[in-house]
Structure formats: structure tokens, C-alpha cells
Amino acid sequence: MAQTAVVAAPSHVTPAVRLDTIDIGFPERGGGYYRAVDGVSLDVAEGEFVAIVGPTGCGKSTLLNATAGLLKPAAGTVLIGGTPLAGLNRDAGYLFQADALMPWKTAIENVAVGLEVRGVRSAEARERATRWLARVGLKAFLDRYPHQLSGGQRKRVALVQVLILDPKILLMDEPFGPLDAQTRALMCELLLKLWSEDRKAVMFVTHDLEEAIALADRVIIMSAGPGASIIGDHRVDLERPRDPAEIRHSPEFGRIYKAIWQELKTEVIKAYEQGDQG
Ligand SMILES: Nc1ncnc2c1ncn2[C@@H]1O[C@H](COP(=O)(O)OP(=O)(O)OP(=O)(O)O)[C@@H](O)[C@H]1O
Fold first, then answer.
1. In this protein, which residues make up the domain named ABC transporter (predicted)?
2. Where are the domains of the chain?
């Protein structure tokens, strides 16, 4: 581990998320078993923004799925606010690469529906959805259907669809992956703005190391699978509030990037070599 590495939060503070020595695997065709992640421990403090990077197929999504309660580890425990997770994680909001907008509902309906399902009156749900959509610059697009919105606009709707439910934990899996570079930069800026107004614990999976450093308080590096584990844990001590586009030009950013990339590169090469052999 590099010098910038940090250890878990002090033991007297209950983390928002604790992955305690978890193993996760999948049955393979023909009766085998693929051990995806092996002995992973990770604490995410309340209000902390943690980015997870690692070579393709190493198990980043698998870790998020376990934290969401969508996957049960073969061994180890997922603790949410100190309580072992059983079933779905109701404290978490999940944003995937592909958004979960319903094509037959307008932007406002897509955002309000989550509140309505929780018993909020329709008029109030719509009022709150309007406020949220206005916060992300979509007040003029309330009645548009998803196919009438740009990729970036749809992503903003998807983001507020999750945030309106006020989850304590935000799980984001390559959320800006399909967007063009400029839209992606604007989404990063928007995400940091919203997060700084109401700090949630965030686990953010990305392939983009620059994005990880620009956004996060800590960057976690996973090794190549099978049996992937955490091999690096770097604190990102860049000032906040940050402009995620501007901060990339600072010398401190360059130093952090270099330290993390040195570790990550080795794993990326390993994963490619395994792919070539496979
Ligand atoms: N349902 C499943 N059944 C069998 N194998 C699976 C399943 N889900 C994931 N895997 C395997 O587990 C490993 C980890 O997958 P995962 O999607 O978590 O990786 P990742 O790091 O998120 O990948 P990427 O960066 O490419 O999105 C991969 O080898 C994948 O093929």
C-alpha cells in the first residue's frame, strides 16, 4: 500500500457501511465455483465519498450489489449503520449506468412515483419532485418523457429520482459511463454540489481514475480477480468545495493520480493478461 494509504475509521465511530471480510462467488456452468471477491473489508464513514476503482471484472459491482442487499456474501458480514444487513438495504439508493426511468412516465412522474409508493399524497409528491427537478435545472422539462430528454437530462432525472427518497447511502455504479465527456464533467460538478449540501455516504464505482480522484475523499483500489481484494486505500486531501474539472490541473492532483495509477496499472495489466489467456 502506498504512503497515502489510510486505515478504517476510528473504531468508536459506527460507519455507515462496513464490509467485514466478505467473500462472494458465483456457481459456474459444469458445477464449478467462481470466487469473485475474497476477504474484502471496507468501512465507509457517514458523509464520506468513497470511489472504488479496479480492473474490469474485478468485482466492483459485486461489492455494490452486496451493499445493496441484492447479493448475499458466501462469508463475512455487511453492516449498515452497525446492523447486519438482512435482505434489501432500505437505507441505500442505487444509481446504475443504465437509468431506471419508466418510459411511459414523464420526468415529474418518474421522480414523484418513489414518494407515492411510500404513501406521500400525489400533490405533495409532485410538488417535491418539481422542487428537486428545478434544483438540477430541469424545471422546464417536467412533462417530457424520457425519450424526449438528452442523455445528461435523463441522468439528472435519474439522480433526483434517487435523492428525493433521501437515502443515507448512495451506491453509484459507473453512473456517468454512457455520457459524453462534457456532460460527464457537468454531472460530476452537479453531483458534488448536491452531495456537499447534504452529505451522504457514497460508494462510487468508476473506470475513470481522474473522475474518482476529482470526486472522492478516498479512492479504493481492487486487485484483479479471481479472488479480488482491496490493495490500496488512498485519502484524497484536495480542498472542498472542489470544481471537479479544475482540480485536475493542480499539482497535488497529479501527485495523487501518479501514486494510485502505479498500483492500479499492475492490476489492469494482470487482468488483460488473464483475458488474453482465457
Ligand atoms: N451473476 C453472476 N454469475 C456469474 N459470474 C458473475 C455474476 N456476476 C458477476 N460475475 C463475475 O464476477 C466477476 C466480478 O464481476 P463484477 O461485475 O462485479 O466486476 P466489475 O469490477 O464491476 O466489472 P466491470 O468493471 O467490467 O464493470 C466477473 O468475473 C464476473 O464475470
1. 19-249
2. 1-91+168-267, 98-166
36 Cβ closer than 6 Å to some ligand 1 atom: yes
Q: How far apart are the first and last CA of the chain?
A: 29
Complex ipTM over 0.85: yes
Please report the pLDDT score of residue 89 as a whole number. Answer: 97
C-alpha dist (Å) from residue 83 to 16, 36, 71, 79, 166 = 10, 24, 17, 5, 19
Q: Whose CA is nearest to atom 4 of ligand 1?
A: 26
Q: Which of 22, 28, 34, 267 to mutate to test the pocket of ligand 1 (most atoms within 8 A of CB)?
A: 34
Instruction: Report the nearest atom of ligand 1 relative to the CA of 58.
Output: 21
Percent of the chain residues topping a pLDDT of 90: 87
- Residue 30 has a pLDDT of 86
Q: Are strands 169-173 and 201-205 parallel, antiparallel or unpaired?
A: parallel
Atom 9 (ligand 1) nearest CA? 62
Amino acid letter at 106? Answer: T
The span from the CA of 148 to the CA of 172, in Å, is: 24
Q: How far is the CA of 26 from the centre of ligand 1 (A)?
A: 9
Q: What architecture is domain 1-91+168-267?
A: 3-Layer(aba) Sandwich (3.40)
